[in-house]
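In this supplementary section we document a worked example of the pipeline. Step one takes a protein sequence of length 287 as its only input; no multiple sequence alignment statistics are reported here. Step two produces a three-dimensional model, which step three serialises into C-alpha cells for compact storage. The input and output of this example are shown verbatim.
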Amino acid sequence: MGLGVSPNQPHPAIGDFSGERCMRLSVPHYPTLARFAIVLALGLLASGCAMLDSGSPRVASLEPASGHALAAFSIHPPEVGIPAHWKPVDFGAFKRPTEYQMVNLQGRTCIRATADASASMLVHQTHFEASAFPMLHWSWNVPSLIASADNTQRQREDSPARIVIAFEGDSSRLSALERMNARQFQLLTGSPMPFATLMYIRGNHTAPETIISSTHTDRIKMIVAESGPEGLGQWQTFTRNLVDDYRRAFGEAPGRVAWIGLMTDADNTRERTHAYYGDVTFAALSR
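The serialised model returned by step three reads:
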C-alpha cells in the first residue's frame, strides 16, 4: 500500500493522550508495515504531544532529562509504571495493540511487550543531530522466535523485537511520489512525515547485518541485528553507529533523530510472542 490519501485513508480524530489533547488515527486493516508507514507520518504529533524541553547533555542516558535524553526503565520499580515520556502508539481501531508493561526480570526493571496477533509501538520523542550522538545502545531479551515470520515477505512481516528510529530530512530530495505522499500527510495531520525510518529487528533466518527494504515504502529500512535461535531467552546488548548504519541503508548522511520506538508485532502471522526491552541510550563518539 502507498502512503497517499485514498478512499480508505485513515481519519484523524481528537482524543486524550496521557492527559493532553492530540490526534489519533483509525487505520483500516493493512499489514503491519503499511500501517506503520501511516502512523509514523504523524511523528507522534510533535507539535502537540509530550514535547521534551530543549537541551544537550553529552550522553543521552538514564535520566529523563530534557532534549534528547531518554527516560530509563531500570531506575524505577515496576509498580511506578512506564516512564511518562514513553507513549503508546497504536495502529487504529481495527488492529489489536501490543501490550507494554513494566516488569522485573532477573533483577532488572524493563519493558515486557506481549503481542497476540497484534501490533503497536511504544515511542519516545527526541530531537538531536544523529552525528552529534551517533552511538545507540540497547538491550533486549527475546525468549522465542515467531516460527512463521519472514521479514522479506509482506504477509509474514513480523518480529518479536524492533528498535525503530525516525529521522528528519530534506523532503524536496524525495521522489515525486514520496513528496506527494508527504504533502498529503502534512495536509491530513498537520505534522510532517518522517523523512526516513531505520529499524533494528530480531530475525528468524536472515543473516545478521542484512538490510531489508520495506515492501510498502523505500523510506523504511530494516537491519537484522541478530537472527536464529542462538541467544534466545538471554539478555543481548547492542551498540550501533547510527550514522554508519543510515549511510549503508540510505546511501547518505542522516539528519536529526525525531523519535525512537520499541515495537513487538505478530499481527501478520497471527501468532503470539513476547520480548523484554532494557534501557535505550544515545552517546557521542569516544574521544
